[in-house]
Design goal:
Number of strands: 17
Low-confidence stretches: none
Strand content: 25-35%
Mean pLDDT: 97
Number of domains: 3
Bound molecules: coenzyme A
Helix content: 25-40%
Oligomer: single chain
Distance between the termini: 19 Å
Structural class: alpha+beta
C-alpha cells in the first residue's frame, strides 16, 4: 500500500480550530527521537500507563517509521514539547465478507491529557483523521476503543463483537475431536515468522480482521521490553500429521496462593487454520493439570468450544463491542464486500459529517457483487451512518436494529443480503 499516507498534509480545518484555542496540531517527525520520546511519554500517560523507560521508547521508535503520528501542543505549558493530545494512524487492510479486503484507516493511540479534556480536542483530532482518510482514499476508518461511549459521536459503530470466556475446567471435560497431530512448546522467536505467516494465511477467512505486523504482531508474542505479562507467557503450536504448523496458542498461568491445584490459565491468543488445530489446542488448554479456571480473552462470538465440552454451563460468556468502523465512502465500502442474496434496495443514510449522507441504490447481482450509485428514488430502508457500520460486516442483523428502532423500512431484505456465514471478529487490540 506504500507510505503515501505519511506525506499527506495536516488537516487545515482542525489545525485552525485548535489554533483558535491556543493549541498547535502537528505531524510528528518520527526521525526526531526527542520529539518521539516526548510524544510516547504523553501517549502512555494518556492511557494511564507506566513511565516509559528509554529501552521501551527505543523499541517503540523502531515500530513507528511507517506510522502517521500527530500531536497537539500547548506552547504555554512548562513542558511544551510533550503533546497534550496524540493519535497514530496507518492504512490497514480490513477483511470484509467474501474473502476480500478493503483499505481502512486504522486509528490508534487517541489520547487527550486530563488537563485539556472536554474542550473539543479529541473531536478536532478525529475529524482531522476522517478527512485525511478520505483524502487518502480509504472508504472506512477503524479502531478499537477504551470506552464504548466515545466514538458513536463521530459516526463509528461496533461492527465486530467479541467474547471473553470463563471456563470451569473441572466441569469442562473434553468431548471434542482428538486430532492426530502434535502440540509442542516453542519460544517466541520460533514463532516470529511462521506464526505471522499463519495469521496472514487465515486473515481473509474472517471479516473484521486487519492486516498486522510490526508492533501489533510482536506484542502478541510478548516481545515488548516493558511487558510484565510477557514474562509468564508460554507458546504452543500445533503441527498436523505432515508436520505443517496449523495453529498457535499463547497463555499465562497464575497460581492461587491458597490452593496449588487451582491455577488460573489465561488464554491470550489462539490462531488456527484448521478444525484439527482448533480442537487440539483447546483440548491442550482445558486439560492442563493444576488448573481450575480458564479465561479466554477476545474470542469470536461463534466460538465452537462450548460444543466440545461435557457441560455447556461450564463456559460462561461475556460479550463486548470490539472493532468499531466508520464508513467514509458508502459506494466504495459497499462495493468492497460480497453479499448473501441478490436484489436491489435504496438505502437512505444520514451522516452529520456528510461523508456518507444521501440515498444510495444498492444493486446486488447473482454472484453477490454490488454496484452502488447515488439516487433520488424513495428509500426502501433507512439508517444512520453508524448503524450502517454496525451491519456492514454482517455481525448484527438489520432486523435486530429495526426492532431496536434504529433501522427503518425493509430490514428483512437487507438482512438477507448482509448476513455473513462467518461472524466478524478482530483478534487484536490496536
Ligand atoms: C476519550 C478522550 C480522548 C476524549 O477527549 P476530549 O478531548 O475530552 O473529547 P472532546 O472534548 O473532543 O469530546 C468529543 C465528544 O466526545 C464526547 N466524549 C468525550 N469523551 C467521552 C467519554 N469518555 N464518554 C462519552 N463521551 C465522551 C464528548 O462529550 C464530545 O461529544 P460532542 O462533541 O458530540 O458534544 C480523552 O478523555 C482521553 O484521552 N481518555 C483517556 C484515553 C482514552 O480513553 N482514549 C480513547 C482511546 S480509544
Amino acid at each position: 500500500m506504500g507510505n503515501d499516507h505519511l506525506d499527506l498534509p495536516i488537516d487545515p480545518t482542525s489545525r485552525e480550530r485548535l489554533a483558535a484555542d491556543g493549541l498547535r496540531l502537528e505531524l510528528l517527525d518520527v526521525s526526531d527521537k526527542q520529539a518521539f520520546a516526548a510524544w510516547t511519554r504523553a501517549e502512555a500517560r494518556g492511557f494511564h500507563g507506566p513511565q516509559q523507560t528509554d529501552a521501551a521508547i527505543e523499541q517503540r521508535h523502531g515500530y513507528s517509521i511507517d506510522r502517521r503520528i500527530t500531536g497537539v501542543y500547548d506552547d504555554s505549558l512548562p513542558v511544551p514539547e510533550e503533546p497534550v493530545a496524540t493519535t497514530k494512524v496507518w492504512p490497514a487492510d480490513l477483511t470484509v465478507p467474501g474473502h476480500r479486503a478493503v483499505r481502512s484507516w486504522a486509528i490508534s493511540d487517541v489520547t487527550v491529557a486530563p488537563t485539556h479534556r472536554r474542550r473539543g480536542v479529541a473531536r478536532a483530532l478525529i475529524e482531522a483523521e476522517l478527512r485525511t482518510a478520505q483524502a487518502h482514499g480509504a472508504p472506512i476508518a477503524t479502531l478499537t476503543v477504551s470506552e464504548s461511549t466515545i466514538y458513536g459521536h463521530f459516526g463509528f459503530g461496533p461492527a465486530a463483537l467479541a467474547r471473553d470466556l470463563t471456563i470451569d475446567a473441572r466441569r469442562a471435560s473434553w468431548t471434542g475431536p482428538r486430532p492426530a497431530g502434535r502440540v509442542h512448546f516453542v519460544n517466541a522467536d520460533q514463532l516470529l515468522e511462521p506464526g505471522l505467516a499463519l495469521v496472514e494465511r487465515v486473515r481473509l477467512a474472517t471479516p473484521g480482521q486487519i492486516a498486522y505486523d510490526g508492533v501489533l504482531w510482536d506484542r502478541q508474542l510478548g516481545m515488548m521490553v516493558d511487558d510484565e505479562v510477557a514474562k509468564k507467557q508460554r507458546h504452543v503450536r500445533y503441527d498436523d500429521e505432515n508436520g505443517q504448523m496449523q495453529g498457535w496458542a499463547s497463555y499465562t498461568l497464575t497460581e492461587n496462593p491458597d490452593d496449588f491445584t487451582q491455577h488460573r490459565l489465561d488464554l491470550l491468543h489462539l490462531v488456527t487454520a484448521t478444525d484439527d488445530a482448533y480442537a487440539a489446542l483447546w483440548r491442550f488448554v482445558l486439560e492442563m493439570d493444576l488448573v481450575s479456571e480458564v479465561k479466554a480473552h477476545l474470542r469470536p462470538v461463534d466460538e465452537p468450544v462450548r460444543w466440545m465440552v461435557s457441560d455447556f454451563r461450564a463456559v460462561k460468556v461475556a460479550e463486548l463491542d470490539h472493532l468499531w468502523i466508520r464508513v467514509l465512502d458508502v459506494p466504495a465500502a459497499l462495493e468492497a464486500r460480497t453479499y448473501a442474496a441478490s436484489g436491489r434496495l435504496v438505502l437512505r443514510v444520514t451522516d452529520p459529517f456528510e461523508a456518507g449522507d444521501g440515498c444510495w441504490a444498492l444493486e446486488i447481482d447473482d454472484a453477490g457483487a454490488a454496484t452502488v450509485s447515488p439516487t433520488e428514488e424513495p428509500a426502501d430502508v433507512s439508517m444512520t451512518i453508524a448503524d450502517l457500520a454496525v451491519i456492514y460486516l454482517g455481525g448484527t442483523s438489520p432486523r435486530v436494529l429495526q426492532s431496536a428502532g434504529r433501522v427503518h423500512g425493509d430490514a428483512t431484505a437487507l438482512d438477507a443480503m448482509f448476513r455473513s456465514p462467518v461472524a466478524p471478529f478482530l483478534s487484536i487490540w490496536f
